[in-house]
Amino acid sequence: MSDLNALLHSRSFVELGARQRVAALLDRGSLRELLDPFARIKSPWLEAQGIVAQADDGVVVAKGTLGGRPAVVAAIEGNFQGGSLGEVGGAKIAGALELAAEDNRNGIPTCAVLLLETGGVRLQEANLGLAAIAEVQAAIVELRQYRPVIGVVAGPVGCFGGMSIAAALCSHLLATREARLGLNGPQVIEQEAGIEEYDSRDRPFIWSLTGGEQRFACGLVDAYVADDAQAIRERLLGILEGPGDAPPRSRQYRRFLDLLGRVDTRPQADAAAVRALYQGDQP
């Protein structure tokens, strides 16, 4: 009965928009959005290509508190241009993280949460988007020296491209069952390697390799959480209470390079083989 009550009172995080996700996580009444849509700071590059720009460039950034602790939350709107990150949106995230690092240097222990619903760089902005993502990555590394930078990949877009590298740089990374995490998206892999190698329409196959459950089992994600806004918030609070002392994955590069060196690329990869490799069950 308790499980039924929990289900009846749950609120899907995946179904929320970026702004709603931010509001669901921060303490009630503490949210203050930075550069909201009324600031009219949007991409100057999309209109010239016949694309209607969005007033917040598809990125919501807010300051507030999480369990009474100062926090900054940045959420990418997956429904705008597939969650792709351009010059303006990337600058908003990087700037927020840099300000959080400055807060810490000034004695204000500010953490950060990144809600990553993104296909990576916005192709229409090319190198400008890549530069913005590089700034986000540098800002994550700087801030995590002081306070946790927690990434959340919920779905349905997933987290791909350069922002998947940003996700890997986070102090902690959470994923739901609906989430996907990978460097290249399914369509890109199919285009480059062929449908025999990777069928982008085979959803069970894709999720079996890049879905949240598989990524957690492989140690590429720190927590596997239910698609419930309150459950995700509680997990964030738990991390802030006791972040632990495990080094970020980017500092475990020797282990991951060793694992990559063991990969046999001749047979078609499957979920069981990949999981066995990461869990050390494969010679």
TrEMBL record:
Q: Which InterPro entries match?
A: AcCoA_carboxyl_beta (IPR034733), ClpP/crotonase-like_dom_sf (IPR029045), COA_CT_N (IPR011762), Malonate_beta (IPR017556)
One Pfam entry name: Carboxyl_trans
Example GO BP: carbohydrate metabolic process
- Taxonomic superkingdom: Bacteria
GO molecular function annotations of the record: acetyl-CoA carboxylase activity; carboxy-lyase activity; transferase activity
Q: Where are the transmembrane segments?
A: none
Q: Which UniProt keywords apply?
A: Transferase
Where does the CoA carboxyltransferase N-terminal domain lie?
A: 1-255
This one is known as Malonate decarboxylase, beta subunit
Which taxonomic lineage is given here? Bacteria, Pseudomonadati, Pseudomonadota, Gammaproteobacteria, Pseudomonadales
